[in-house]
Amino acid sequence: MSTYVPPGWPAQVHPPGSERFEDTAVAWLLELVPPEYRRHGVLRRYPVALARMARHHVGAAVDAAREGFRTARVELGGLVPPHGVDAVLDVYREEGARMAALLRAVELVEAALCARERPGDPRYRRPFTPKI
After folding, report:
1. CA triplet 10, 11, 15: central angle to 5 degrees?
2. Is residue 48 within 8 Å of 117, Cβ to Cβ?
3. Element holding 99 (H helix, E strand)
4. What is the pTM assigned to this prediction?
5. Alpha-carbon distance 65 to 77, whole Å?
6. Where would a tag sit more exposed on the chain, N or C end, judged by fewer CB atoms within 10 A?
7. CA–CA gap between residue 9 and residue 101 (Å, rounded)
């Protein structure tokens, strides 16, 4: 029997409801936040809190990529030749898209963890609807 996972679900995380879901979710989320976060046991005890912190961390990276893209020509003009600025913009496009997809994946995992913690809570009836 296979378990449905929505598009964008991270391959490293087992499906919600499976025996290893929470363990694999925690391991994956810890890879997305600064290494120092591993020192805090509370984040392993409460995976929903870890997911929230990962969402904020990855969201900040998405915002930074967008800001960098918007300002690259002005900030790098005169310092980097035009073809170099174009290459930098290509990096922002590629990495920005990757980070946005990662943010969607974090939101999916976070929603599944929330639904697991509060199965009857109407706020989590649709656990796979990201806010992007």
Report:
1. 80
2. yes
3. helix 82-117
4. 0.83
5. 18
6. N
7. 10
Q: What one-character DSSP code corresponds to residue 128?
A: T
**Helices vs. strands in the chain: H and E counts, helices first:** 4, 0
Q: Which two tokens stand for residue 118?
A: 């509060």
Q: Specify the amino acid at residue 24.
A: T
The domain locations on the chain are 21-118
Burial 17-38 (b: 16+ CB within 10 A, else e): eeeebbebbbebbbebbeeebe
82 close to 95: Cβ distance less than 8 angstroms: no
Gap between the Cα atoms of 101 and 19, Å rounded:
26
Residue entry with tokens 């990276």:
61
pLDDT digits (tens), the chain, 132 positions: 467 788 999 999 999 989 999 999 999 999 999 999 999 999 999 999 999 999 999 999 999 999 999 999 999 999 999 999 999 999 999 999 999 999 999 999 999 999 876 555 554 444 444 444
Which residue, chain included where needed, has tokens 């005169």?
A: 78
